[in-house]
Specification:
heterodimer; A: mainly beta; 7-stranded mixed sheet; 4-stranded antiparallel sheet; 11 strands; B: mainly beta; 6-stranded mixed sheet
Chain lengths: ~110, ~110
């Protein structure tokens, strides 16, 4: 099993552009989490899904951020329009009704 | 509300010295506590959980409900222990959701 897969691994974009991050969870996992990691704020939970349904999106910074999970094997996190302060590493993680979350390698986003 | 606090953002020790990474929590119920670790260029991964009462890579952590702490300890640090460590809490009633601290970057000098 390749584990949680994220793409792209690195993204550099200009302010104002739309950014889409992708995640494929581990097969059979019914929880999916999106996190943002920065030096200043550490690891922040943005949103999480259970059985493809968003459960808690209170961590989503603002309306510029949106996340979808159209099926059990795919999720996206979209930022539109992007801003320099969105620069961070974005992690996707999945789990199966347990506290052991399996993290992807992350997407390093740079907004210039 | 629940909260996990890691008071040290950075911690440096020399190889062979004892190391303790502090974690305090606030939660009115019965939490489950965990330590996650992220080595350089690797994925964040579970290191240990308090209910297992196990030692992983020489690390141990004891849940102290009186002091609401879950400090991570190792008697003799190794260079390969250098990593970012996150303390996390589960409310138990909310399956899947973890509350993470802000992390402590541990550097072990040779």
């Amino acid at each position: 099993d390749a584990g949680v897969i994220q793409s792209p691994r690195h993204e550099v974009t200009e302010m104002g552009q739309e950014v889409t991050l992708r995640c494929k969870p581990i097969s059979g996992h019914d929880y999916l989490f999106w996190y943002r990691q920065t030096m200043m704020r550490g690891l922040e939970l943005l949103i999480y899904f259970n059985n493809n349904v968003p459960i808690d999106d209170s961590g989503m910074p603002e309306d510029r951020f949106s996340a979808k999970m159209p099926n059990a094997s795919f999720s996206t996190l979209k930022i539109q329009p992007s801003e320099p302060r969105d620069s961070a590493v974005y992690f996707c993680a999945s789990s199966r009704r347990t506290y052991e979350q399996y993290f992807g390698p992350g997407t390093r986003l740079t907004v210039t | 509300a629940q909260r996990v606090t890691q008071p040290e953002k950075l911690l440096s020790v020399f190889k062979g010295a004892p190391v303790e990474l502090k974690c305090n929590y606030s939660y009115s119920g019965s939490p489950e506590l965990f330590w996650y670790v992220q080595y350089s260029r690797q994925r964040l991964q579970l290191l240990l959980r308090h209910i297992s009462r196990e030692s992983i890579k020489g690390f141990t952590a004891d849940l102290n409900k009186g002091e609401t702490s879950f400090h991570l300890k190792k008697p003799f640090a190794q260079e390969e222990d250098s990593a970012m460590y996150y303390c996390a809490l589960s409310r138990g009633s909310t399956l899947g959701r973890l509350y993470f601290g802000r992390g402590t970057q541990l550097t072990v000098w040779p």
